[in-house]
Amino acid sequence: MPTLMPRPTPIPNRPSRPELVVIRSEPGPRRGNAAVANTDPSEPTSTLTSTVTSTLTGRLAGATAGVKRDMPQAGSPPHAAIDSTAINSAAINNAATSNATMSDAALVEAARAGHMWAQEALFHRHSRMVLGLSQRILAGRDDAEDLAQDAFIYALGRLDTLNNPQAFSSWLGSIVVRTASKRLRRQRLMVRLGLRRNEPIDPNTLVSRTAPSDVGAELRVVYSLLNNMPAEQRVALVLRRVEGMELKEIAEHMGLSLATVKRRLSDAEGRLDRAMLCL
Questions:
Q1: Total count of domains within the chain
Q2: Which member of 36, 166, 189, 230 has the greatest number of CB atoms within 10 A?
Q3: How far apart are CA 258 and CA 150, in angstroms?
Q4: pLDDT tens digits along 176-192
Q5: Is residue 73 in some structural domain?
């Protein structure tokens, strides 16, 4: 069994896309209504991130043991901090001591080379984004924890399929979105078959008390409608009205054509508009 490099001091959790993560203690630009959706892992259930961290860290070694470690082919983005054709222990050691400033591309290249500290650094850097996005789509913390674990395991086990290492954050977000869609479709099927209860969503647990009244009202209506929507409508509506994504970005994350996304959103937003008129 190869000897792993000593793991550097873990970098602090930090979102790579702050506009998608609720961090009310760290003011900054937000997109859509994600800023007022009460889904911050640092909120009262502060054990959320630590639970996922401890669970995932224990699974990383086994889940990534068989990962292909081929170096990127010619034509890969040039902005990786580590030359993927000449990764060596000294270079990794030097980079590891300051991995907080390493780019995603550099961490991906190191992770591809089998360095566990780089995989864990990617997890810690993006865990809050993944957990927040998972919670806002699934509207449940327990389900979000499972989704976050599955998304990271999938991503870290398939880094060799990522063509642009610097796009790791967006790629990881799309994995969360598509995995969530599959879960929602499966849940709806189980409800129809009588194998699962259709648990109602309590919007008050998802909307921040500090949200402006009009924004809070829209979020409550959005989440009150989600359980009765097909999975693709539901996900598209959350990405549009809560995450504030553009149509093209939604299509990329969901793996659908732009025309299909427009149809799904038209149906979902039609239901939302009719519900808003009843307020």
A1: 1
A2: 36
A3: 27
A4: 999 999 999 999 999 99
A5: no
Lookup: tokens for 219:
């979020």
Mean pLDDT of all residues belonging to the chain: 76
Give me the domain span that covers residue 115: 18-22+30-64+84-277
pLDDT tops 60 at residue 59: no
pTM for this structure? 0.72
Q: Which two tokens stand for residue 100?
A: 């907080």
CA-atom Rg of the chain in angstroms = 20
Return d(Cα 8, Cα 97) in angstroms, integer.
Answer: 6
pLDDT at 75 over 80: no
Cβ(49)–Cβ(32) under 8 Å? no
What is residue 52's predicted lDDT score, i.e. its pLDDT? Answer: 53
Contacts (Cβ under 8 Å, ≥6 apart) of 37? 22, 135, 136, 206, 207, 208, 219, 242
Distance in angstroms (rounded) separating the CA atoms of residues 45 and 241: 25
Question: What is the CATH number for 179?
Answer: 1.20.140.160
In a domain, 78, yes or no: no
Q: Is residue 115 part of a domain?
A: yes
